């Protein structure tokens, strides 16, 4: 155990922030740390949009489902899959790069690159005593988000990240058991053992919610997931991705 591991294992989402903006130095440190993340074949297929305009933040908060902390934080970042610059590279170098750029593989590369960069940014922020929360809600209406942020073709806003000085810190939610996540040499397909682990985890999560809410909630994790997955959301995504220039060949 060292300080880096302690920092990583102490993560929790923060949704209430002090009314205090991040400094330019903090913003730059977070972005440069994001850029230091691994990137497939040095392609760097992502961009980060920092939103400081309060009206835009208010609109993004509404588009994300009325999440107030999207509007009230120290800084709001939007991480985007970005192959727009690579199309420009094709024009500069007079190479036909479009079939590759449109491929499912490069789409996956852009998603992975953006996620790796974002996690670096999150850790950099937390190392400064700041809190963060990922915001997937911006995908509720990517047409409106893209218009608001003026993203060009082959750029897709993937998720936001609120960053700021914590006003209130949530308790850490217990994660799935180590044995449920880590498989050695091959995927463990013992479904009976899997279901038993899930039942034990449900007990842990139910107890967590009961303590956190003074008995007002006793949700199980499997119950939450089943209810969420039963409801079809953001089913427009395939069409939007294709419209943005990713044919997923």
Automatic annotation (TrEMBL):
> Which SUPFAM superfamilies does this one have?
FMN-dependent nitroreductase-like
Q: Does the keyword Chaperone apply?
A: no
Q: What is its EC number?
A: 1.5.1.38
Q: Native species of this protein?
A: Cytobacillus gottheilii
Q: Provide the alphabetized UniProt keywords.
A: Flavoprotein, FMN, NADP, Oxidoreductase
Family stated for the protein in its record? Belongs to the flavin oxidoreductase frp family.
Q: Where is the Nitroreductase domain?
A: 9-165
- Name the record gives this protein: Oxygen-insensitive NADPH nitroreductase
User: What is the enzyme's main class?
Assistant: oxidoreductase
**Which PANTHER family does the UniProt entry name for this protein?**
NADPH-DEPENDENT OXIDOREDUCTASE (PTHR43425:SF3), OXYGEN-INSENSITIVE NADPH NITROREDUCTASE (PTHR43425)
Q: Name one GO molecular function term.
A: FMN reductase (NADPH) activity
